[in-house]
UniProtKB/TrEMBL annotation:
The lineage of its organism: Eukaryota, Viridiplantae, Streptophyta, Embryophyta, Tracheophyta. This is Ubiquitin-specific protease family C19-related protein. Residues 1-14 have a biased composition (Polar residues). Residues 1-148 are annotated as: Disordered. It comes from Morus notabilis. Keywords: Membrane, Transmembrane, Transmembrane helix. InterPro entries: At1g16860-like. It comes from the Eukaryota. The chain crosses the membrane at residues 172-193, 199-221. Residues 61-81, 124-139 have a biased composition (Low complexity).
Length: 437
């Protein structure tokens, strides 16, 4: 039997004897894909995706080398990334060092709001944050109370005066009442002297005493009556609110374009901050202000700021812009907390408090002082009472142009109480119910 000669077919269709060349067998197809090694979730080994993050490609041979390296090489080859590098995975000792990125990606919060930084970024947070280096955070922690006074622009409203709460009565009614009371007292006094009868004088006094009692009652309890009225006022739903409607909205607040920071404690990302220094005046002591009376606390220095912020309605979930900047009238009712208390027994001033006084050019004599600070931090639950405005699909809440009246509260013997501006109320305990945003 003859031996069969091998043959093969050329690309032109002609059959020839012999085996095909070895080079044709090893030639790769034109459209075949290159074998990609298993990345294991490492973005530096994923080719084009790694280029999107400015991470160079790694040779497969380098991957094999890193897999076969000993554990001692892994421990000694770790590279410490910078504070702004934003590493996604650890880097071994072999291979090129990845470039630094702009910063870590902030995850989407449960509220759905995207803010400029995490809640813990700051001197009072659990961590110093990914945007500051360790040394900068440490120095800020040490000098948190001795930094200079913050200076804001016109976009931030400076509240120099206290909230004015009072009741209004027509001037005509006041003059008529004063004339009638004066005439009654004169006639009663004349009859008591001439006729020896005090019936008219007692009658006039019986009318004046209840009226004066009601006036004094409203003077001392007017503010509490206003807060009770605001608390009982029903919450409105922003989805159905019309333009020009006076509403009360309760929800979570987030900072606007200008976040505030408290003066002494350096609490970051606030929408309202206040710091007040009080002094106690005894018999013959120094007065903190011209209206300071003896045996009482008087305000010596105060600074309060508020800026535009957003509020997310609890009922509808909509977010509205609260316009309180650029000199708007605002009536904040936020109870401050005492952060520094200097008494006769405790006169040791902390370096941070001394620095705070020096920055504001305040003397630290032998006085009884008390420093109070209040703030509304981002994520706090607040109530805003104002007028709804809609402009180019933007929902806003602005202060009312006219003073707001509570009306007569007969059950509490309170006359109509008036207050000007947007009413801003907040719970006393802020640290307990702050929602991360």
């Amino acid at each position: 039997m003859g031996t069969r000669i091998p043959s093969h077919q050329l690309s032109s269709g002609l059959y020839v004897s012999g085996r095909p060349e070895q080079q044709q067998k090893e030639r790769q197809p034109t459209m075949a894909s290159r074998a990609v090694p298993y990345t294991g979730g490492d973005i530096k080994k994923s080719g084009e995706l790694g280029k999107m993050f400015n991470i160079p490609d790694i040779d497969p041979s380098m991957i094999k080398t890193s897999r076969t390296s000993s554990s001692s090489q892994h421990n000694s080859g770790s590279v410490r990334s910078g504070p702004n590098s934003g590493p996604i995975s650890k880097h071994s000792g072999s291979g090129p060092i990845p470039k630094k990125l702009s910063g870590p990606m902030v995850p989407l919060q449960p509220t759905g709001l995207i803010t400029s930084g995490p809640l813990g970024s700051g001197p009072l947070g659990s961590s110093s944050g990914g945007r500051r280096s360790a040394s900068a955070s440490a120095s800020q922690m040490e000098n948190s109370g001795s930094t200079g006074k913050a200076v804001y622009g016109s976009a931030v409203t400076s509240l120099s005066e206290e909230v004015k709460v009072g009741f209004r009565v027509s001037k005509a009614v006041v003059w008529v009442f004063l004339v009638v009371a004066a005439m009654g007292l004169l006639v009663g006094a004349f009859l008591m002297v001439a006729v020896k009868k005090a019936v008219i004088l007692v009658s006039v006094a019986g009318v004046l005493v209840p009226i004066l009692a009601v006036v004094f009652w409203n003077y001392f309890w007017g503010k509490r009556g206003l807060l009770g009225f605001v608390k009982r006022y029903p919450d409105a739903e922003l989805r159905g609110a019309i333009d020009g409607q006076y509403v009360k909205v309760t929800g979570v607040v987030t900072c606007g374009s200008i976040p505030l920071e408290s003066s002494y404690q350096r609490v970051p990302r606030c929408v309202y901050v206040s710091t007040e220094l009080y002094e106690y005046k005894g018999w013959g002591g120094k007065s903190a202000n011209p209206r300071h009376r003896c045996f009482s606390w008087g305000s010596r220095y105060s600074e309060r700021y508020v800026a535009d912020f957003y509020i997310s309605d609890f009922q509808s979930g909509l977010r509205a812009l609260v316009k309180v900047g650029y000199g708007a009238k605002v009536a904040p009712f936020v109870k401050p907390a005492t952060v520094v208390d200097i008494t006769k027994e405790n006169r040791e001033l902390s370096p941070s408090f001394l620095g705070w006084l020096a920055d504001r050019k305040l003397s630290c004599d032998d006085r009884i002082m008390r420093l109070k600070e209040g703030y509304i931090k981002e994520g706090s639950t607040v109530s805003v009472t104002g007028v709804v405005r809609r402009h180019d699909n933007v929902l806003m809440i602005v202060p009312s142009a006219e003073p707001v009246s509570t009306g007569c509260q007969w059950s509490r013997c309170l006359l109509p109480t008036y207050v000007e501006g947007l009413i801003l109320t907040c719970d006393d305990n802020q640290n307990a119910d702050v929602i991360p945003v």
